[in-house]
């Protein structure tokens, strides 16, 4: 059974929801995703869902086959053309590498890196089974790139990155483009960037959510498992002390209706309020797992034992728990109203430039204008501008 009908249905659904170019749609129709997920029901493989393929010792997901919708979006951001040389950071199942190979064609070359030897071996098997054995899969820390096959026309990371690795920028050709899920104080955006003078400038910015990069290039974020069954976690953009949040969540909440309309199925979905908090609020975090009657994720403020988080019930409602819950709820509600009064800015409204730091940290730094934000990373300074 070739499951062509399931692929056609998946692509039709994706094209109903967003614009997808003909070359990318053709790749999704041609490459059999179920062959890259041998332990998954083939019909499940063609749903528009991410599928976890590996967990760490604590049960937290560390690798997955990404949601087809964001894969298609990022492939269109990347703009692979026949004959291109492409480097992928994060091989996973090998499915995205097969799509890249389909786009690059027989005259192109695709190299895919992964830090885990078992994932590399599995990706090679999957690629061979799907007839895409020409993809080169290498076990290596993606932060170093793969200089042996440089220069590249395109570079894509399918794992969340905290900073732009100098090796990636060095290994891209003069007209090269990179697409990475980049961390902006805890919010991820898929940003397509090209050279512009002495820095890199965004060509498009799209909200996304990926598992974070591991190894020497990992960011400072940390995850607290509030319940040991893994069904409730608190994600912090950087390490800091928190109190007994789990006990606080059992307390009767303070609720504040912000009167701000919830235009999405979940408050975090559009990333607008999350980005607003990330750029303004050191106490922000993400609460995810089993909340109320179902599973999901939402933005929150946490301080001490107290926590306040956002829920969508037609309008955005804030719930505060614990000794400081009422105060945190009022502050979070204030952020929501300020974001709405500012026109509900979102990630796709933003222009981002990345300015590599000279060796030793000397030299000019970007200057922020009114309303701009500068985020300092290890190797680059990011300048965020909004209309």
From TrEMBL:
GO BP term, example: methylation
Record keywords, A-Z: Cytoplasm, Methyltransferase, S-adenosyl-L-methionine, Transferase
SUPFAM superfamilies, alphabetized: S-adenosyl-L-methionine-dependent methyltransferases
Compositional bias annotation for Low complexity: 356-368
Enzyme Commission number: 2.1.1.77
Region (Disordered), start-end ranges: 347-368
InterPro entries: Methyltran_FxLD (IPR027573), PCMT (IPR000682), SAM-dependent_MTases_sf (IPR029063)
Cellular component per GO, a single term: cytoplasm
Subcellular localization: Cytoplasm
Annotated transmembrane regions: none
Matches recorded under Pfam families: PCMT (PF01135)
Primary location recorded for the protein, binned into one broad class: cytoplasm
An example molecular function term from Gene Ontology annotations: protein-L-isoaspartate (D-aspartate) O-methyltransferase activity
Family: Belongs to the methyltransferase superfamily. L-isoaspartyl/D-aspartyl protein methyltransferase family.
Listed name of the protein: Protein-L-isoaspartate O-methyltransferase
Source organism of this protein record: Nonomuraea cypriaca
Lineage, broadest ranks: Bacteria, Bacillati, Actinomycetota, Actinomycetes, Streptosporangiales
Gene it is expressed from: fxlM
